[in-house]
Amino acid sequence: MLKHEALPLKKAKPKIFYGYVIVLSAFIIQAVGWGVPSTFGVFFKSLQDTFGWSRATIAGASSVSSLVVGVFSIGVGILTDRFGPRIIMTICGVLLGIGYLLMSQINTVWHLYLFYGLIIGIGSSATNVVLLATAARWFNKKRGMMSGIIKVGTGVGMLIMPIVAGRLIAIYDWRLSYTIVAIIAIIFILPLAQLLKRDPAQMGQLPDGVVQTNTNNTTRVAETGFSPRELFHTRQFWLMCVIFLTITFCTQPILVHIVRHSEDLGAATASAAGVLSTIGGVSILGRLAMGYASDRIGN
Q: Which residues, 6+ apart, have CB-to-CB distance to 170 below 8 Å?
């Protein structure tokens, strides 16, 4: 007869808070999801030289894309609430990759507006809404800081991707460069989108990693906030809309035209792309500082 010795009980280690996985995944998706579209200005000269289109014509596709991002972000937010971030981010990631693959095949102006303005615009519409809304459900006390870290991904993407695109165009032609950019978008966004979870209840956790005191791990924390009807009647909502419109109105033309303007001043495409990258790099410090400050002193 076998004798079993009593083994000392080990204390269960606390689970790793999955919210940090959400933040890391969202950070990388932001870097790629906004870094790739930031290369639009890097391809500007190649499109002009190949097709002879005016600057206004080419820049118009970026304007259409921005408008599509804004409009579709509303629907993306609603769908994220209903189906969760994983499905929506995956679909938009696929559209973003397909859009850039199609950009490598453009031959007419309507191709540019359809592929970049519409398809890439829809693909980009999820990047902010899905990721920031998801992170907000995972964090209360550190919400501003975590949102800032996620948005640092935008700065990292803007720092890296224009330089990458400029080097690719210098080595290959612009069509192959667009194909490579599409592959980068797909191989990063799609796998990371599978890690996104709607809220802590899906992992049996609470916001901010607070230790669960009861045994019911399926309890969903009640969400608080305004209904759409209530939100539309608040001054703060419309004030934020005006602020965001004003900021974008000022910054977007610079992001689209700064590389082409640098080339007019005599810079090579790769060097001109570095000017755009500098904007992204400097913004990293601001995003971190503002996220931290919003938690400490308020928005």
A: 268, 269, 270
